Amino acid sequence: MEVHHPHHPTHKKKWAEYIIEFVMLFAAVTLGFLAENVRELNTDKKNTNNSLVTLYKDIQTDSVKVSLAIRNRDVIFKSREIIMNYYSNGEINNKIDELYLFDFLVARRSFPKINQMALDELNSNGKLNFIDNKELKINIQTYYQLSKQMEIRKDREHDFLDKHHDPYRIKFFNMYELEKNKIHIDSINIRNGKIIYDISEDRLNLKLNNPTQFNLVDYINTLNLFINIENQNNVLFIIPFKNKIEVLLNQLREYFNDNNIDFTNK
Questions:
Q1: Mean pLDDT of the 62-77 span
Q2: How far apart are the C-alpha atoms of 128 and 202, rounded to whole Å?
Q3: Which residues pair with 200 in a beta bridge?
Q4: Residue 134 neighbours by CB under 8 Å, 6+ apart
């Protein structure tokens, strides 16, 4: 028996239809890609803004630290002058209380420690590229470099104290006596040409350990050298850094206001 196969007419696509389908598919993929890029860009900008708010709050805290450090270092510089006057006039052996307070100021490390976490995040993750304000971007980078220099200077000061001052303090000064009298660095001031604690000028009646072995000349020379280093760091690094803080805080506030970024409640 002869078998007949049905014949169904098929539509043969024209080249124009293939081109239209290709264009539609290409457009869909391209739009999806662009939408994803826009979404990622918005996310990156949002994350950058959050990091800038964190940086702003860190710098505010650093500003307080730097101001306090400048105050404490100023007390150290003034105390040095008082101790040197006692030394020059041959009175130092009768001013052991003040020598203790002076040594306590020096030993407590007055160089401010800068928080670099937000700065590191902005620099390492490429978030600076999403900041539209070129001047702000440059100042953040400058601030970052200055903070690294501050860290180096801090380490050098601490290293000097560890190697050259601490051996004197450990051997000759009984710091437990200061702790027993609840004296802390913020309670030490200059008044009436004396180094005092709080508002009291009462004698603590402190004594040096191993006084016969205490080489006053070497001790004074060591601290003079260190305080000269402190003073140089103040002039070249800490005070300029404080000024840079104020400039950057103002720029960040302007940037937040211009871009409607809430930086008060985060």
A1: 93
A2: 55
A3: 197
A4: none
The stretch 136-149 carries a mean pLDDT of 92
Q: How do residues 7-60 score in pLDDT, each as one tens digit?
A: 555 555 566 666 666 666 666 666 555 555 545 555 667 778 888 999 999 999
DSSP 185: G
Nearby residues of 53 by Cβ (< 8 Å), 6 or more positions away:
256, 261, 262, 263, 266
First to last CA, the chain: 88
- Is 83 contained in some domain? yes
Question: Which range of residues forms the domain containing residue 137?
Answer: 48-258
How many C-beta atoms surround the C-beta of residue 40 within 10 A? 10
Q: Would you state the structure tokens that stand for residue 213, as one six-digit string? A: 């072995």
Q: Does the pLDDT at position 135 exceed 80?
A: yes
Element at 28 (helix H, strand E):
helix 15-88
Domain contains 163: yes
Q: Is the residue at 266 inside a domain?
A: no
Could you tell me if 79 and 190 are in contact, meaning their C-beta atoms sit under 8 angstroms apart?
Answer: yes
CA 31/CA 104 separation, integer angstroms: 67
Which one-letter amino acid corresponds to residue 117? M
104 domain residue, yes or no: yes
Q: Read off the pTM.
A: 0.78
Q: Which two tokens stand for residue 187?
A: 């309670």
| Number of domains present in the structure of the chain | 1
Residue that wins the pLDDT comparison between 31 and 77 = 77
For residue 104, the one-letter residue type is F
Residue whose token pair is 């040197």: 84
